[in-house]
Structure formats: structure tokens, C-alpha cells
Amino acid sequence: MVRVTNRSMAGGCFGPVRVTVDVEPAAASSVHVADDFIDLRDRDRDDEYMRAELANEQWTAELTTGALRGVRAALLQHEYRTGPLRVVLVKHYLHIVESSYFSVRAGASRAVRAAIEQLPHRMVREWVTLTPGGPVVRLANPVDPEVGDTDAEVFIEVAPAAARSVVLAEDFATDATGPRLDAADLSRIPGIAVAAAHAALDRHEERVGPLRLTLVGHRPHQTVSWSLEHQYRDALDDGVRMAVEQLEFALAEQAG
Q1: What residues contact residue 45 under an 8 Å CB cut-off, 6+ apart?
Q2: Does pTM top 0.85 for this prediction?
Q3: Band of pLDDT at residue 147, cut at 50, 70 and 90
């Protein structure tokens, strides 16, 4: 088990807000909240305003909801690296100015991500196929069902190669629909996805060498026209980062 309190970057938003979590491997993923998760520092216990804040059940429930949301977002993005985790929201001391749904959500998410960095990581074997020619990774970037109005989902296949290439599968766009996209929007997505794939490879490929990346399929979900480039950039960046991590494990296993 690791206990972590988030650290904010210098000059970043929500700098004074801290959230402490306990994180440990478990048989199944779960999130829990300590009874005194929202609390006051000793120096604030005699402050009438701060005592009133702590007694405001609607306010503390909102902060707790934000923290839970942050934990689940971090698990969605990073829990695959460790396997199932048990997370306990241990403590958030109310800040007279900065405590809010969004700041506590960000603090909790950062704390869980930092905890995951301290735990042993693994290869996700259902994503990896070991072949005589080398490992092949097939996966899709995680999509947050609680957001659901912006996240594109892209299915990719990634393998080591002599030289980089990005390939569109013949049926990449088959049956792809988006309730907020028209035919013209949908026709732009293959080109956007190819450009986003190259940008992601620029950021991550050097860790394992040249890669062949096949864009297998995609689901726009609730993506809107004005955010296509942003959504497919983020989707491919997450997917390629995850695939490269898995290739590192697989290549080491094959070499050893």
C-alpha cells in the first residue's frame, strides 16, 4: 500500500489544494471514502467560518463527489498499468479559498496517478500477441463514460517495424457514426487520425524504435465538429503511449 498526497506544479491551478489517498493492489477495483475525509486543519478549528463550511453537508458532499470523480478518471487512464486497485480517499483539509469540486477532483486524480507510479507495473497480456516476428499490441484508448460528450475512441494495432508507417485499415470508417457529426465531418476523420497518429509516434516511438501503426477503427461517440482534431489527437496520444508501454514489456520478455 502506498499513501500519497498530490503535489501541484509551481504556478499551476489549485496550488494549495491537497488530497491524500491510500492505494493498493486488490482482487477487484474499488474506491472508498474515509469517514473524516473532509476535515479542518488544527489551526482552522476555532474559525467560525471554517467550522460552518465543514458543517455544510451539501458542500462537503459536492467536494467528495469531485474527489471520487478524480479518482475514477485516474483509474480509467492508468489502472491497466498495475491491475485492479483499492483506493481510499483519506483526507482533504478545507482551504478557505481554493477548495472546490474542480480543485478536489484535480487533486485526487493527481494523487492516484502519483501512487500508481510507485506501484509495480505489468504487461496486459490480453492486449499483446507474441509472434515469431515480434510482439503485436491491439488496444483502444480509454473513454470516460461519465463524460461521454467529447471523447473519441480509436482502435489501433502497433508492432515494431524497420521504418515507421501509419496504415488505415480498409474498414476503419465502416459503420462509424456520431450523433453530432454529419457526413462531411465523418469524412475528415481518417485524415485527422493519420496526422494524430504521426504526432503521437513523434512523442513516444523513440522508446522502442520504429513502429507500424494500423488504425483499425474508431467511434466518435459524442464528439462535435469543432473538436475533432483535439479529440483524435488526445485519443491517439493515449493509445500510442499505452501501446509503447506494452511493447517495452513484450520486447523485454522476448529478449529474456
Answers
A1: 51
A2: yes
A3: low
CA distance 178 to 148: 12
Give the integer Cα–Cα distance in Å for 51 and 31.
Answer: 27
Closest CA to 21 of 36, 6, 35, 7: 6
- E strand or H helix at 22: strand 20-25
Grid cell of 202 as nine digits = 513523434
pLDDT classification of 148: cutoffs 50, 70, 90: low
Coil vs helix vs strand at 171: coil
Q: How far apart are CA 212 and CA 196, in angstroms?
A: 14
pLDDT in tens, 91-106: 999 988 889 999 999 9
Q: Which of 240, 149, 154 is nearest to 189 (CA)?
A: 154
Q: How far apart are CA 14 and CA 157, in angstroms?
A: 38
